[in-house]
Specification:
The chain has 144 residues and is mainly alpha-helical. The chain contains 2 helices and 2 strands; from the N terminus they run ααββ. The chain has a two-stranded antiparallel ribbon with strand order 1-2.
């Protein structure tokens, strides 16, 4: 019976790995979609402002709220994706830390948990998306 147990264990491990790869790919696809949509919304904001710059800018708040909602989704999906990979990202030094740890081994910062009250807060420099940061960087001080 030993060989059958070994075979069953190996096939379960392979099945779990395939499931994790599938989940990771789905999360990556969803993140990419959200990032692309954010860039489109920024474009819509620019167009609406350009066409009606004398109108009330509060009309753009709905689009801004949509961007923030998508950024929060992306943040949660990236956390889940890193969890599938077995690590967390330190919010202070961006180090990859094993998911079992609560503090960063490089800088000592507390690592975030999805249950934390402030987990879904957005950083001030987090306007751009990973796939578009060469195209759009909200924190640049360059005058074009």
């Amino acid at each position: 019976m030993g060989i059958l147990d070994t075979f069953g264990s190996v096939s379960k491990t392979a099945s779990d790995k395939a499931k994790n790869i599938s989940e990771a790919n789905n999360l990556k696809r969803k993140i990419l979609y959200e990032e692309e949509r954010i860039v489109e919304i920024f474009t819509d904001i620019g167009k609406k402002y350009y066409k009606s710059r004398n109108d009330d800018p509060a009309a753009l708040n709905e689009l801004c709220d949509d961007i923030d909602k998508r950024r929060r989704r992306i943040k949660k999906m990236r956390f889940e994706l890193n969890g599938i990979r077995g690590y967390k990202i330190c919010p202070k030094c961006d180090a990859e830390v094993n998911e079992r740890f609560q503090f960063c081994g490089r800088c000592g910062a507390r690592l975030p948990e999805i249950e934390d009250d402030d987990f879904m807060s957005l950083e001030s420099n987090d306007y751009y998306t990973e796939s578009s940061n060469t195209f759009f960087n909200a924190d640049s001080n360059k005058n074009y």
